[in-house]
Amino acid sequence: MILNKVKFTAPNNDDFHKELRKRVNSYFKEKNLSKYANINMVVKSIFMISLYLVPFILILTALETSWLIILMWVLMGFGMSGIGLSIMHDANHSAYSKNKYVNMFMGKMIWLVGGSDVNWRIQHNVLHHTFTNVDEMDEDIDIGGLMRFSPNQELKRAHRFQHVYAWFLYGMMTVMWATSKDYSQYARYKKKDLLKTQGITGTQFLITLIITKTIYLAFTLALPLFVSSMPWWATLLCFLLMHFIAGLTLAGIFQPAHVVPPSTFEVASPKGEIELDWAANQLMNTANFAPKARVFSWYVGGLNYQIEHHLFPNVCHVHYRKISSIVRDTAFEYNLPYYSYKTFYDALSGHAKMLHKLGTEKDAPAIH
User: Fold this and answer.
1) Region of residue 335 (left: phi > 0; alpha: psi -120 to 50; beta: else)
2) Could you give phi then psi for residue 341, rounded to 5 degrees?
3) Is there a contact between 198 and 121 (Cβ–Cβ < 8 Å)?
């Protein structure tokens, strides 16, 4: 479907979102708080970047013991996902700073991990956040038939095993970023005229992709292949291990927030109408998890509070825990759901059960 042809058509239900915005704005005003990053966010940013770059420098300059080198690649994997979850995510939502140049700079941290900030904003901000779990609009639930993430998608024979092989594919996610995915997205978004949402031409974007991908692979893979004391094949395996850790971590945070049993997976009518309002769709297709796990929440960039993130994507994640009670209470007042799993394990288990259900039940109900 064409982006500007799909609309949420229940504006009368927008009272909830208006009241919620009013209450959250009042919270920040009364507490005299900025909605952007604070000193804790700055410290976290330094930590995550260091967790990625310091082990890499040690691999190139100081370490010769194989198990220590492998450990450094493992740490880089967690640093890589930490940069994605806790830095570039907020920045590309313009939530890191009120200064657009700071957001631009921090958003391009995704280059360090082999991704594209332009493609990410289109897939995540424009498509996923606008049309969360909407069939044919949200690319997060459409990976070309390899997996079935929605009851509205075709059920294939291989899908009966997707609750098993999903975790391997998740681990390969950032490998695909670094190699082929961004190029295929470039071609698709150019064809769909979505590059204009980012103020960039197809030629500019393609040149940027080629340069950033080449530099990334040259420094992160080719340089260690020549400099590291480990054999070339071991270095290659370590590079893939780093990416597997990052990919599995990122998918493990995002997927249990949307592809879970309570999700409704809306479908636009032939006229492009979705019979909900935008905020209600967010609540019906998003779930929180592990709200009391402070250290976990710190590492994953507050994205265990996915409901708050989806309703207030321009608010820095350091504030999500504090505003979550406002969001929950307001949702209940308007008879809207507020899904929250007690632990991360519960959320992963719910996601695995949903994968099994979608992979085995052909007649799972489609929502219209």
Assistant:
1) left
2) -85, 140
3) yes
Domain limits of the chain? 3-360
- Dig out the tokens for 62 from the structure: 């100081």
Question: Which residue shows structure tokens 């966010």?
Answer: 41
Say how many C-beta atoms besides its own lie within 10 A of residue 65's C-beta. 10
Query: Does residue 363 register a pLDDT over 80?
Result: no
Q: What is the pTM of this model?
A: 0.91
8 pLDDT above the threshold of 90: no
Could you tell me which of 125, 364, 350, 152 has the C-alpha nearest to residue 257? 350
CB atoms within 10 A of CB 176: 17
Please give the sequence-ordered ranges of beta strands (E in DSSP) within the chain, or none if there are none. 7-8, 273-274, 287-289, 339-341
Q: Which residues contact 342 (CB under 8 A, 6 or more apart)?
A: 289, 290
Question: 7-8 and 273-274 as β-strands: parallel, antiparallel, unpaired?
Answer: parallel
CB 266 within 8 A of CB 51: no
% residues pLDDT > 90 (the chain): 81
